[in-house]
Protein backbone atom coordinates (compact mmCIF):
# COMPACT_ATOMS: atom_id res chain seq x y z
CA UNK A 1 0.00 0.00 0.00
CA UNK A 2 2.98 2.31 0.53
CA UNK A 3 3.76 4.61 -2.30
CA UNK A 4 6.27 7.40 -2.56
CA UNK A 5 4.71 10.79 -2.29
CA UNK A 6 7.60 12.89 -3.48
CA UNK A 7 9.29 13.13 -6.86
CA UNK A 8 12.35 11.38 -5.51
CA UNK A 9 11.31 8.04 -6.95
CA UNK A 10 14.15 5.83 -8.08
CA UNK A 11 12.52 5.35 -11.46
CA UNK A 12 10.21 8.01 -12.69
CA UNK A 13 7.90 6.28 -15.11
CA UNK A 14 5.70 9.34 -15.38
CA UNK A 15 8.56 11.48 -16.68
CA UNK A 16 8.16 12.62 -20.30
CA UNK A 17 10.67 14.22 -22.60
CA UNK A 18 11.52 17.91 -22.18
CA UNK A 19 13.00 19.32 -25.36
CA UNK A 20 13.34 22.27 -27.69
CA UNK A 21 13.34 22.57 -31.46
CA UNK A 22 14.28 25.17 -34.05
CA UNK A 23 12.52 24.88 -37.40
CA UNK A 24 15.11 24.25 -40.11
CA UNK A 25 15.79 26.74 -42.87
CA UNK A 26 14.05 29.71 -41.25
CA UNK A 27 15.75 33.06 -40.71
CA UNK A 28 14.77 36.19 -38.86
CA UNK A 29 15.74 39.84 -39.10
CA UNK A 30 15.00 42.66 -36.73
CA UNK A 31 12.31 43.91 -39.14
CA UNK A 32 10.26 40.76 -38.67
CA UNK A 33 7.35 40.56 -36.29
CA UNK A 34 8.71 38.14 -33.71
CA UNK A 35 6.14 37.04 -31.16
CA UNK A 36 6.00 34.44 -28.41
CA UNK A 37 3.30 32.33 -26.83
CA UNK A 38 3.90 30.96 -23.35
CA UNK A 39 1.49 28.25 -22.22
CA UNK A 40 1.98 27.45 -18.54
CA UNK A 41 -0.08 24.32 -18.01
CA UNK A 42 -0.75 22.55 -14.73
CA UNK A 43 1.73 19.83 -15.63
CA UNK A 44 3.69 21.00 -18.69
CA UNK A 45 4.89 24.44 -19.81
CA UNK A 46 5.23 25.18 -23.49
CA UNK A 47 6.68 28.21 -25.31
CA UNK A 48 6.61 28.96 -29.04
CA UNK A 49 8.41 31.65 -31.02
CA UNK A 50 6.88 32.79 -34.30
CA UNK A 51 8.37 34.93 -37.03
CA UNK A 52 5.68 36.79 -38.98
CA UNK A 53 3.13 34.24 -37.79
CA UNK A 54 5.19 31.21 -38.81
CA UNK A 55 6.54 28.71 -36.28
CA UNK A 56 10.22 29.29 -35.68
CA UNK A 57 11.10 27.46 -32.45
CA UNK A 58 9.55 25.96 -29.37
CA UNK A 59 10.31 24.31 -26.06
CA UNK A 60 8.52 22.02 -23.63
CA UNK A 61 9.30 21.56 -19.97
CA UNK A 62 7.62 20.37 -16.81
CA UNK A 63 5.80 23.05 -14.82
CA UNK A 64 7.42 23.58 -11.44
CA UNK A 65 5.71 24.74 -8.28
CA UNK A 66 6.32 28.36 -9.29
CA UNK A 67 4.49 29.57 -12.42
CA UNK A 68 6.63 32.68 -13.20
CA UNK A 69 9.80 30.58 -12.96
CA UNK A 70 8.33 27.90 -15.21
CA UNK A 71 7.35 30.56 -17.75
CA UNK A 72 10.88 32.04 -17.81
CA UNK A 73 12.45 28.61 -18.01
CA UNK A 74 10.38 27.41 -20.95
CA UNK A 75 10.73 30.68 -22.86
CA UNK A 76 14.48 30.45 -22.34
CA UNK A 77 14.36 26.94 -23.75
CA UNK A 78 12.50 28.09 -26.86
CA UNK A 79 14.96 30.96 -27.41
CA UNK A 80 17.97 28.71 -26.90
CA UNK A 81 20.17 28.54 -30.00
CA UNK A 82 18.03 30.97 -32.00
CA UNK A 83 20.24 34.00 -31.42
CA UNK A 84 17.12 35.81 -30.25
CA UNK A 85 16.93 37.60 -26.93
CA UNK A 86 13.80 38.16 -24.88
CA UNK A 87 14.03 41.84 -25.85
CA UNK A 88 13.67 40.90 -29.54
CA UNK A 89 10.14 39.70 -28.90
CA UNK A 90 7.62 42.25 -30.13
CA UNK A 91 4.68 40.79 -28.25
CA UNK A 92 4.24 37.89 -25.82
CA UNK A 93 0.94 36.25 -24.93
CA UNK A 94 0.54 34.08 -21.83
CA UNK A 95 -1.97 31.25 -21.74
CA UNK A 96 -2.79 28.08 -19.84
CA UNK A 97 -3.59 27.32 -16.22
CA UNK A 98 -0.85 29.71 -15.01
CA UNK A 99 -1.42 32.43 -17.63
CA UNK A 100 -1.86 35.24 -15.13
CA UNK A 101 1.57 34.37 -13.75
CA UNK A 102 3.57 34.82 -16.95
CA UNK A 103 5.70 37.86 -16.04
CA UNK A 104 6.93 38.65 -19.58
CA UNK A 105 3.48 38.51 -21.17
CA UNK A 106 1.86 41.62 -22.66
CA UNK A 107 -1.51 39.93 -22.39
CA UNK A 108 -3.15 36.74 -21.14
CA UNK A 109 -5.61 34.78 -23.30
CA UNK A 110 -7.51 31.62 -22.31
CA UNK A 111 -6.05 28.32 -23.45
CA UNK A 112 -9.35 27.42 -25.10
CA UNK A 113 -9.00 30.23 -27.65
CA UNK A 114 -5.29 29.48 -28.04
CA UNK A 115 -5.77 25.75 -28.66
CA UNK A 116 -8.43 26.34 -31.28
CA UNK A 117 -6.17 28.89 -33.00
CA UNK A 118 -3.11 26.66 -32.70
CA UNK A 119 -4.90 23.57 -34.03
CA UNK A 120 -6.06 25.66 -37.00
CA UNK A 121 -2.43 26.64 -37.58
CA UNK A 122 -1.05 23.08 -37.29
CA UNK A 123 -3.69 21.22 -39.31
CA UNK A 124 -5.30 23.94 -41.42
CA UNK A 125 -8.80 25.37 -41.89
CA UNK A 126 -10.65 22.04 -42.11
CA UNK A 127 -10.42 21.58 -38.31
CA UNK A 128 -13.81 21.95 -36.61
CA UNK A 129 -13.43 19.97 -33.36
CA UNK A 130 -10.39 20.08 -31.08
CA UNK A 131 -9.95 17.77 -28.11
CA UNK A 132 -7.30 19.21 -25.83
CA UNK A 133 -6.16 16.78 -23.19
CA UNK A 134 -4.13 18.66 -20.66
CA UNK A 135 -2.51 17.76 -17.38
CA UNK A 136 -5.54 18.56 -15.23
CA UNK A 137 -8.44 18.95 -17.60
CA UNK A 138 -10.01 17.83 -20.82
CA UNK A 139 -11.58 20.30 -23.22
CA UNK A 140 -13.67 19.64 -26.29
CA UNK A 141 -13.70 22.76 -28.47
CA UNK A 142 -15.72 23.52 -31.61
CA UNK A 143 -14.14 26.04 -33.93
CA UNK A 144 -14.75 27.67 -37.32
CA UNK A 145 -12.46 27.67 -40.35
CA UNK A 146 -10.47 30.61 -38.96
CA UNK A 147 -9.77 28.84 -35.66
CA UNK A 148 -12.25 30.92 -33.71
CA UNK A 149 -14.02 29.17 -30.82
CA UNK A 150 -17.71 28.43 -31.49
CA UNK A 151 -18.41 26.51 -28.28
CA UNK A 152 -16.60 24.31 -25.79
CA UNK A 153 -17.05 21.95 -22.88
CA UNK A 154 -14.55 21.07 -20.24
CA UNK A 155 -14.09 18.58 -17.50
CA UNK A 156 -11.84 20.08 -14.87
CA UNK A 157 -12.80 18.47 -11.61
CA UNK A 158 -11.57 14.96 -12.15
CA UNK A 159 -8.23 13.43 -13.10
CA UNK A 160 -9.80 10.67 -15.18
CA UNK A 161 -8.41 10.83 -18.69
CA UNK A 162 -6.07 13.75 -17.99
CA UNK A 163 -2.32 13.65 -18.44
CA UNK A 164 -1.84 13.68 -14.68
CA UNK A 165 -4.09 10.64 -14.34
CA UNK A 166 -2.05 8.87 -16.99
CA UNK A 167 1.18 9.69 -15.15
CA UNK A 168 -0.21 8.13 -11.99
CA UNK A 169 -1.08 5.05 -13.98
CA UNK A 170 2.36 4.89 -15.61
CA UNK A 171 3.91 4.83 -12.15
CA UNK A 172 1.49 2.18 -10.95
CA UNK A 173 2.20 -0.08 -13.93
CA UNK A 174 5.91 0.76 -13.91
CA UNK A 175 5.86 1.53 -17.62
CA UNK A 176 7.36 4.73 -19.05
CA UNK A 177 4.52 7.09 -19.94
CA UNK A 178 5.64 7.50 -23.54
CA UNK A 179 5.26 3.75 -24.13
CA UNK A 180 1.90 3.30 -22.44
CA UNK A 181 -0.20 3.88 -25.54
CA UNK A 182 1.63 1.40 -27.74
CA UNK A 183 1.71 -1.22 -24.99
CA UNK A 184 -2.03 -0.84 -24.37
CA UNK A 185 -2.61 -1.87 -27.99
CA UNK A 186 -0.73 -5.16 -27.60
CA UNK A 187 -3.82 -7.17 -26.81
CA UNK A 188 -5.43 -9.83 -28.99
CA UNK A 189 -8.88 -8.72 -27.99
CA UNK A 190 -10.03 -5.48 -26.39
CA UNK A 191 -11.04 -6.21 -22.76
CA UNK A 192 -14.07 -4.46 -21.21
CA UNK A 193 -13.18 -0.99 -19.87
CA UNK A 194 -12.45 -0.64 -16.14
CA UNK A 195 -15.65 0.27 -14.29
CA UNK A 196 -14.18 3.12 -12.25
CA UNK A 197 -13.14 6.26 -14.05
CA UNK A 198 -11.96 7.83 -10.78
CA UNK A 199 -8.18 7.41 -10.96
CA UNK A 200 -7.93 6.66 -7.23
CA UNK A 201 -10.43 3.79 -7.55
CA UNK A 202 -9.16 2.67 -10.96
CA UNK A 203 -5.78 2.10 -9.35
CA UNK A 204 -7.36 -0.28 -6.84
CA UNK A 205 -9.31 -1.95 -9.62
CA UNK A 206 -6.16 -2.34 -11.72
CA UNK A 207 -4.26 -3.94 -8.85
CA UNK A 208 -7.14 -6.38 -8.44
CA UNK A 209 -7.05 -7.25 -12.15
CA UNK A 210 -3.28 -7.80 -12.06
CA UNK A 211 -3.74 -10.14 -9.09
CA UNK A 212 -6.40 -11.98 -11.04
CA UNK A 213 -3.70 -12.72 -13.58
CA UNK A 214 -4.40 -10.08 -16.22
CA UNK A 215 -1.32 -8.95 -18.15
CA UNK A 216 -0.16 -5.33 -17.88
CA UNK A 217 -1.12 -4.89 -21.54
CA UNK A 218 -4.68 -6.02 -20.84
CA UNK A 219 -5.05 -3.82 -17.74
CA UNK A 220 -3.71 -0.84 -19.68
CA UNK A 221 -6.09 -1.58 -22.54
CA UNK A 222 -9.04 -1.69 -20.11
CA UNK A 223 -7.98 1.56 -18.45
CA UNK A 224 -7.14 3.40 -21.67
CA UNK A 225 -10.45 2.29 -23.14
CA UNK A 226 -12.38 3.75 -20.18
CA UNK A 227 -10.53 7.06 -20.54
CA UNK A 228 -11.12 7.16 -24.30
CA UNK A 229 -14.85 6.56 -23.77
CA UNK A 230 -14.88 9.46 -21.32
CA UNK A 231 -13.20 11.78 -23.81
CA UNK A 232 -15.44 10.61 -26.66
CA UNK A 233 -18.49 11.41 -24.49
CA UNK A 234 -17.24 14.95 -23.96
CA UNK A 235 -16.74 15.36 -27.73
CA UNK A 236 -20.22 14.04 -28.40
CA UNK A 237 -21.70 16.44 -25.88
CA UNK A 238 -20.11 19.45 -27.53
CA UNK A 239 -21.11 18.00 -30.90
CA UNK A 240 -18.64 16.25 -33.19
CA UNK A 241 -18.02 17.94 -36.50
CA UNK A 242 -15.25 16.81 -38.82
CA UNK A 243 -12.34 17.30 -38.95
CA UNK A 244 -11.33 16.20 -35.45
CA UNK A 245 -7.86 16.74 -34.00
CA UNK A 246 -6.30 16.09 -30.62
CA UNK A 247 -3.89 18.49 -28.89
CA UNK A 248 -2.11 18.42 -25.54
CA UNK A 249 0.18 15.77 -24.14
CA UNK A 250 -2.24 12.88 -24.64
CA UNK A 251 -2.30 13.52 -28.39
CA UNK A 252 0.90 11.48 -28.35
CA UNK A 253 -0.78 8.52 -26.66
CA UNK A 254 -1.62 6.23 -29.56
CA UNK A 255 -3.66 3.99 -27.25
CA UNK A 256 -5.98 6.90 -26.45
CA UNK A 257 -6.13 8.38 -29.95
CA UNK A 258 -6.89 5.10 -31.73
CA UNK A 259 -9.57 4.17 -29.19
CA UNK A 260 -11.27 7.57 -29.48
CA UNK A 261 -11.38 6.98 -33.23
CA UNK A 262 -12.98 3.57 -32.70
CA UNK A 263 -15.53 4.84 -30.18
CA UNK A 264 -16.52 7.86 -32.29
CA UNK A 265 -16.24 6.06 -35.63
CA UNK A 266 -14.18 8.85 -37.21
CA UNK A 267 -10.51 9.29 -37.96
CA UNK A 268 -8.58 12.21 -36.52
CA UNK A 269 -6.47 14.25 -38.94
CA UNK A 270 -3.06 12.57 -39.08
CA UNK A 271 -0.60 13.47 -36.37
CA UNK A 272 2.14 15.81 -37.65
CA UNK A 273 5.50 14.11 -37.72
CA UNK A 274 6.58 16.07 -34.64
CA UNK A 275 9.58 13.93 -33.78
CA UNK A 276 11.18 14.86 -37.10
CA UNK A 277 10.02 18.06 -38.75
CA UNK A 278 6.35 18.55 -37.95
CA UNK A 279 4.73 20.82 -35.39
CA UNK A 280 4.15 19.33 -31.96
CA UNK A 281 0.41 19.20 -31.02
CA UNK A 282 1.40 19.57 -27.38
CA UNK A 283 2.54 23.10 -28.27
CA UNK A 284 -0.75 24.02 -30.01
CA UNK A 285 -1.77 26.43 -27.24
CA UNK A 286 1.57 28.25 -27.38
CA UNK A 287 1.39 28.51 -31.21
CA UNK A 288 -2.10 29.95 -30.89
CA UNK A 289 -0.90 32.41 -28.24
CA UNK A 290 2.01 33.56 -30.45
CA UNK A 291 -0.43 34.07 -33.35
CA UNK A 292 -2.69 36.18 -31.15
CA UNK A 293 0.48 38.06 -30.19
CA UNK A 294 1.14 38.90 -33.81
CA UNK A 295 -2.42 40.14 -34.37
CA UNK A 296 -2.32 42.25 -31.20
CA UNK A 297 1.04 43.70 -32.13
CA UNK A 298 -0.19 44.70 -35.57
CA UNK A 299 -3.33 46.22 -34.12
CA UNK A 300 -1.24 48.26 -31.68
CA UNK A 301 1.00 49.51 -34.53
CA UNK A 302 -2.01 50.74 -36.52
CA UNK A 303 -3.58 52.72 -33.72
CA UNK B 1 -35.67 -12.51 18.75
CA UNK B 2 -32.11 -12.53 17.39
CA UNK B 3 -31.27 -10.99 14.04
CA UNK B 4 -28.09 -10.39 12.06
CA UNK B 5 -27.13 -7.36 9.95
CA UNK B 6 -24.19 -7.49 7.57
CA UNK B 7 -22.66 -4.45 5.89
CA UNK B 8 -20.34 -5.43 3.04
CA UNK B 9 -18.29 -2.26 2.51
CA UNK B 10 -15.50 -1.66 0.04
CA UNK B 11 -12.89 -1.69 2.76
CA UNK B 12 -14.41 -3.61 5.68
CA UNK B 13 -17.25 -5.98 6.38
CA UNK B 14 -19.19 -5.25 9.54
CA UNK B 15 -21.64 -7.52 11.36
CA UNK B 16 -24.11 -6.62 14.13
CA UNK B 17 -26.22 -9.03 16.17
CA UNK B 18 -29.40 -7.62 17.60
CA UNK B 19 -31.52 -9.20 20.32
CA UNK B 20 -34.96 -7.77 21.09
CA UNK B 21 -33.98 -4.31 19.93
CA UNK B 22 -30.57 -4.12 21.56
CA UNK B 23 -27.12 -4.68 20.12
CA UNK B 24 -25.50 -7.76 21.66
CA UNK B 25 -22.29 -7.96 19.64
CA UNK B 26 -20.32 -6.70 16.66
CA UNK B 27 -17.70 -8.13 14.36
CA UNK B 28 -15.58 -6.87 11.49
CA UNK B 29 -13.00 -7.96 8.93
CA UNK B 30 -11.13 -6.40 5.99
CA UNK B 31 -13.01 -6.99 2.74
CA UNK B 32 -9.78 -7.72 0.85
CA UNK B 33 -10.27 -9.64 -2.35
CA UNK B 34 -12.72 -12.11 -0.88
CA UNK B 35 -15.63 -10.26 0.67
CA UNK B 36 -17.52 -13.52 1.25
CA UNK B 37 -14.75 -14.94 3.39
CA UNK B 38 -14.44 -11.61 5.23
CA UNK B 39 -18.19 -11.68 5.91
CA UNK B 40 -18.00 -15.21 7.34
CA UNK B 41 -15.18 -14.01 9.56
CA UNK B 42 -17.09 -10.97 10.82
CA UNK B 43 -20.20 -13.06 11.53
CA UNK B 44 -18.19 -15.74 13.35
CA UNK B 45 -16.59 -13.02 15.46
CA UNK B 46 -19.94 -11.50 16.41
CA UNK B 47 -21.53 -14.89 17.13
CA UNK B 48 -18.57 -15.83 19.26
CA UNK B 49 -18.76 -12.65 21.31
CA UNK B 50 -22.50 -13.13 21.85
CA UNK B 51 -22.06 -16.81 22.64
CA UNK B 52 -24.53 -17.74 19.94
CA UNK B 53 -24.72 -20.17 17.03
CA UNK B 54 -25.70 -19.52 13.48
CA UNK B 55 -28.99 -21.39 14.10
CA UNK B 56 -29.97 -18.87 16.79
CA UNK B 57 -30.38 -16.17 14.17
CA UNK B 58 -34.02 -15.78 13.20
CA UNK B 59 -33.43 -13.53 10.23
CA UNK B 60 -30.42 -11.99 8.46
CA UNK B 61 -30.15 -8.99 6.13
CA UNK B 62 -27.19 -7.78 4.08
CA UNK B 63 -26.41 -4.25 2.88
CA UNK B 64 -23.36 -2.32 1.62
CA UNK B 65 -21.84 -1.45 -1.72
CA UNK B 66 -20.55 -4.99 -2.28
CA UNK B 67 -23.63 -6.76 -0.91
CA UNK B 68 -23.78 -9.02 -3.95
CA UNK B 69 -20.69 -10.67 -2.45
CA UNK B 70 -22.42 -11.42 0.85
CA UNK B 71 -22.87 -15.00 1.99
CA UNK B 72 -26.49 -16.10 1.77
CA UNK B 73 -28.83 -13.94 3.86
CA UNK B 74 -32.62 -13.94 4.07
CA UNK B 75 -32.84 -10.61 2.25
CA UNK B 76 -31.05 -7.35 1.54
CA UNK B 77 -31.73 -3.70 2.25
CA UNK B 78 -30.42 -0.65 0.40
CA UNK B 79 -27.59 1.25 2.06
CA UNK B 80 -29.77 4.34 2.29
CA UNK B 81 -32.57 2.35 3.91
CA UNK B 82 -30.17 0.85 6.45
CA UNK B 83 -28.64 4.27 7.22
CA UNK B 84 -32.04 5.84 7.86
CA UNK B 85 -33.10 3.04 10.20
CA UNK B 86 -29.87 3.18 12.18
CA UNK B 87 -29.88 7.00 12.41
CA UNK B 88 -33.36 7.12 13.94
CA UNK B 89 -32.59 4.15 16.21
CA UNK B 90 -29.68 6.12 17.72
CA UNK B 91 -31.35 9.52 17.73
CA UNK B 92 -35.15 9.50 17.41
CA UNK B 93 -35.16 13.12 16.21
CA UNK B 94 -32.69 12.42 13.38
CA UNK B 95 -33.96 13.62 10.00
CA UNK B 96 -30.72 13.99 8.04
CA UNK B 97 -28.24 11.13 8.04
CA UNK B 98 -24.78 11.59 6.52
CA UNK B 99 -22.85 8.39 5.91
CA UNK B 100 -19.23 8.60 4.81
CA UNK B 101 -17.41 5.39 4.08
CA UNK B 102 -14.12 4.55 2.44
CA UNK B 103 -15.27 4.99 -1.13
CA UNK B 104 -18.73 6.51 -0.97
CA UNK B 105 -20.55 9.34 0.72
CA UNK B 106 -24.29 9.84 0.94
CA UNK B 107 -26.88 11.93 2.70
CA UNK B 108 -30.35 10.64 3.52
CA UNK B 109 -33.51 12.45 4.48
CA UNK B 110 -35.83 10.34 6.63
CA UNK B 111 -39.03 10.52 8.64
CA UNK B 112 -39.60 9.83 12.34
CA UNK B 113 -40.03 6.12 11.67
CA UNK B 114 -36.63 5.89 10.04
CA UNK B 115 -38.07 5.54 6.55
CA UNK B 116 -35.90 7.01 3.82
CA UNK B 117 -37.60 9.88 1.93
CA UNK B 118 -34.84 11.15 -0.32
CA UNK B 119 -31.09 10.84 -0.73
CA UNK B 120 -28.02 12.24 -2.49
CA UNK B 121 -25.00 10.14 -3.25
CA UNK B 122 -21.43 10.72 -4.27
CA UNK B 123 -20.27 7.65 -6.08
CA UNK B 124 -17.36 6.62 -8.20
CA UNK B 125 -15.31 9.57 -7.07
CA UNK B 126 -12.84 9.27 -4.23
CA UNK B 127 -12.83 12.99 -3.45
CA UNK B 128 -15.88 12.96 -1.18
CA UNK B 129 -15.03 9.79 0.71
CA UNK B 130 -12.62 8.40 3.27
CA UNK B 131 -10.20 7.54 0.47
CA UNK B 132 -9.53 11.28 0.12
CA UNK B 133 -8.28 11.59 3.70
CA UNK B 134 -6.25 8.40 3.30
CA UNK B 135 -4.50 9.68 0.18
CA UNK B 136 -3.79 13.06 1.72
CA UNK B 137 -2.41 11.43 4.88
CA UNK B 138 -0.07 9.46 2.64
CA UNK B 139 1.04 12.62 0.84
CA UNK B 140 1.62 14.32 4.19
CA UNK B 141 3.43 11.23 5.46
CA UNK B 142 1.34 10.99 8.63
CA UNK B 143 -0.83 8.13 9.90
CA UNK B 144 -4.50 8.32 9.06
CA UNK B 145 -5.49 8.42 12.76
CA UNK B 146 -3.19 11.39 13.30
CA UNK B 147 -4.79 13.55 10.61
CA UNK B 148 -7.80 14.56 12.74
CA UNK B 149 -5.99 15.54 15.95
CA UNK B 150 -3.29 17.25 13.87
CA UNK B 151 -5.83 19.39 12.00
CA UNK B 152 -7.32 20.65 15.27
CA UNK B 153 -4.04 22.40 16.03
CA UNK B 154 -4.28 24.58 12.95
CA UNK B 155 -5.17 28.23 13.20
CA UNK B 156 -6.11 28.57 9.56
CA UNK B 157 -6.41 26.45 6.43
CA UNK B 158 -4.56 26.71 3.13
CA UNK B 159 -6.88 26.14 0.19
CA UNK B 160 -6.40 22.91 -1.76
CA UNK B 161 -8.12 21.28 -4.72
CA UNK B 162 -10.78 19.07 -3.23
CA UNK B 163 -12.43 18.09 -6.45
CA UNK B 164 -10.13 15.18 -7.11
CA UNK B 165 -7.84 13.00 -4.99
CA UNK B 166 -5.13 13.03 -7.66
CA UNK B 167 -5.12 16.83 -7.97
CA UNK B 168 -5.43 17.17 -4.20
CA UNK B 169 -2.26 15.11 -3.76
CA UNK B 170 -0.32 17.43 -6.07
CA UNK B 171 -1.65 20.42 -4.12
CA UNK B 172 -0.58 18.91 -0.81
CA UNK B 173 2.90 18.24 -2.20
CA UNK B 174 3.24 21.85 -3.34
CA UNK B 175 2.00 23.09 0.06
CA UNK B 176 4.72 20.96 1.66
CA UNK B 177 7.25 22.56 -0.70
CA UNK B 178 5.95 25.96 0.34
CA UNK B 179 6.63 24.86 3.90
CA UNK B 180 3.08 25.16 5.14
CA UNK B 181 2.72 23.45 8.51
CA UNK B 182 1.28 19.95 8.65
CA UNK B 183 -1.64 20.92 10.93
CA UNK B 184 -2.68 23.60 8.45
CA UNK B 185 -2.50 21.23 5.52
CA UNK B 186 -4.46 18.59 7.46
CA UNK B 187 -7.08 21.23 8.28
CA UNK B 188 -7.22 22.18 4.59
CA UNK B 189 -7.89 18.55 3.68
CA UNK B 190 -10.84 18.28 6.09
CA UNK B 191 -12.22 21.70 5.17
CA UNK B 192 -12.08 20.82 1.49
CA UNK B 193 -13.86 17.54 2.06
CA UNK B 194 -16.43 19.14 4.39
CA UNK B 195 -17.11 21.71 1.65
CA UNK B 196 -17.93 18.95 -0.76
CA UNK B 197 -20.11 17.03 1.66
CA UNK B 198 -21.88 20.18 2.78
CA UNK B 199 -22.89 21.10 -0.76
CA UNK B 200 -24.14 17.54 -1.23
CA UNK B 201 -26.23 17.76 1.97
CA UNK B 202 -27.58 21.18 0.99
CA UNK B 203 -29.08 19.68 -2.16
CA UNK B 204 -31.21 17.60 0.19
CA UNK B 205 -31.85 20.30 2.80
CA UNK B 206 -30.28 20.40 6.25
CA UNK B 207 -33.06 19.16 8.53
CA UNK B 208 -32.12 18.71 12.17
CA UNK B 209 -31.16 16.54 13.84
CA UNK B 210 -28.16 15.84 11.66
CA UNK B 211 -26.44 12.53 12.32
CA UNK B 212 -23.03 11.54 11.01
CA UNK B 213 -22.23 7.84 10.59
CA UNK B 214 -19.75 5.66 8.70
CA UNK B 215 -16.05 5.12 9.34
CA UNK B 216 -15.15 8.77 8.67
CA UNK B 217 -17.51 9.88 11.48
CA UNK B 218 -14.83 8.74 13.93
CA UNK B 219 -12.46 11.38 12.61
CA UNK B 220 -12.42 14.39 14.95
CA UNK B 221 -10.87 16.59 12.25
CA UNK B 222 -13.59 15.93 9.73
CA UNK B 223 -16.28 16.25 12.39
CA UNK B 224 -14.99 19.73 13.37
CA UNK B 225 -14.77 20.91 9.75
CA UNK B 226 -18.23 19.64 8.84
CA UNK B 227 -19.78 21.19 11.93
CA UNK B 228 -18.19 24.53 11.08
CA UNK B 229 -19.33 24.27 7.49
CA UNK B 230 -22.92 23.18 8.11
CA UNK B 231 -23.33 25.49 11.10
CA UNK B 232 -25.52 23.01 13.00
CA UNK B 233 -25.00 20.48 15.76
CA UNK B 234 -23.94 17.10 14.46
CA UNK B 235 -24.66 13.94 16.40
CA UNK B 236 -22.34 10.96 16.17
CA UNK B 237 -23.39 7.64 17.71
CA UNK B 238 -21.08 5.22 19.44
CA UNK B 239 -19.54 2.85 16.85
CA UNK B 240 -20.62 4.95 13.85
CA UNK B 241 -18.85 2.54 11.49
CA UNK B 242 -21.33 -0.20 12.45
CA UNK B 243 -24.40 1.92 11.68
CA UNK B 244 -25.05 0.30 8.29
CA UNK B 245 -24.85 -3.20 9.76
CA UNK B 246 -27.11 -2.13 12.62
CA UNK B 247 -29.61 -0.74 10.12
CA UNK B 248 -29.59 -4.10 8.35
CA UNK B 249 -30.11 -5.94 11.66
CA UNK B 250 -33.04 -3.60 12.44
CA UNK B 251 -34.53 -4.30 9.02
CA UNK B 252 -34.07 -8.01 9.74
CA UNK B 253 -36.00 -7.66 12.99
CA UNK B 254 -38.99 -5.97 11.38
CA UNK B 255 -39.02 -8.39 8.45
CA UNK B 256 -38.85 -11.36 10.81
CA UNK B 257 -41.89 -9.99 12.66
CA UNK B 258 -43.78 -9.63 9.38
CA UNK B 259 -43.04 -13.19 8.35
CA UNK B 260 -44.21 -14.42 11.75
CA UNK B 261 -47.62 -12.83 11.31
Characterise the protein shown here.
- Chain A has 303 residues and is an alpha/beta fold.
- Chain A has eight helices and ten strands.
- Chain A has two domains: 19-122 and 277-302, ATPase, nucleotide binding domain (Nucleotidyltransferase, domain 5), CATH 3.30.420.40; 127-264, Nucleotidyltransferase, domain 5.
- Chain A has helices at residues 67-79, 111-123, 163-173, 180-184, 199-211, 216-238, 254-264, 284-302; strands at residues 19-22, 34-40, 44-51, 54-62, 91-95, 107-108, 129-133, 138-143, 149-155, 244-247.
- A six-stranded mixed β-sheet of chain A has the order 1-4-3-2-5-6. Chain A has a four-stranded mixed β-sheet with strand order 9-8-7-10, with helices on both faces.
- In chain A, β2 and β3 form a beta hairpin.
- In chain A, α5 packs antiparallel against α6.
- Chain A starts with 18 loop residues before the first strand and ends with a helix.
- Residues 1-9 of chain A have low confidence and may be disordered.
- Chain B is α/β, with parallel strands linked by helices and 261 residues long.
- In chain B, 43% of the residues lie in helices and 21% in strands.
- Chain B contains eight helices and ten strands.
- Chain B has helices at residues 35-50, 79-90, 130-140, 144-151, 165-177, 182-204, 220-230, 243-260; strands at 2-8, 12-19, 22-30, 59-63, 75-76, 96-100, 105-110, 116-122, 210-213, 234-235.
- In chain B, the strands form two sheets. Chain B has a five-stranded mixed β-sheet with strand order 3-2-1-4-5. Chain B has a five-stranded mixed β-sheet with strand order 8-7-6-9-10.
- In chain B, α7 links the parallel β9 and β10 (234-235).
- The radius of gyration of chain B is 19 Å and the shape is globular.
- Classes of the chains: A alpha/beta (303), B alpha/beta (261).
- The interface between A and B is medium-sized, with 21 and 23 residues.
Amino acid sequence: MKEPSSVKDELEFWRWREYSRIVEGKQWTSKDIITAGVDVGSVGSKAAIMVNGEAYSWGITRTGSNSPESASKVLGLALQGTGLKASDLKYTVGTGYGRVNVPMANKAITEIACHAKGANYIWGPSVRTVLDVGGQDIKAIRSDETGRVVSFLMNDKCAAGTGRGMEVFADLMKIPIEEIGAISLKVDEEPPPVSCTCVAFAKTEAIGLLRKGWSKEKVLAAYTRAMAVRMANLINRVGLEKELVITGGQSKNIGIVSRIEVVLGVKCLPMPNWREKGLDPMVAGAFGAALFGKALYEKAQKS
Amino acid sequence: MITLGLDIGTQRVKAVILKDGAVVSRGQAFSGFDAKKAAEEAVAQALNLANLNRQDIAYSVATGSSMENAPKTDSTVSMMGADAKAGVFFFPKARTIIDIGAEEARAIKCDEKGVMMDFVINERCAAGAGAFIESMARALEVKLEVMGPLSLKAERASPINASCVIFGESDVVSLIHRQESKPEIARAVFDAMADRISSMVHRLGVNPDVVLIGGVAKDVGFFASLKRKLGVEILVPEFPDYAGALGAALAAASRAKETQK
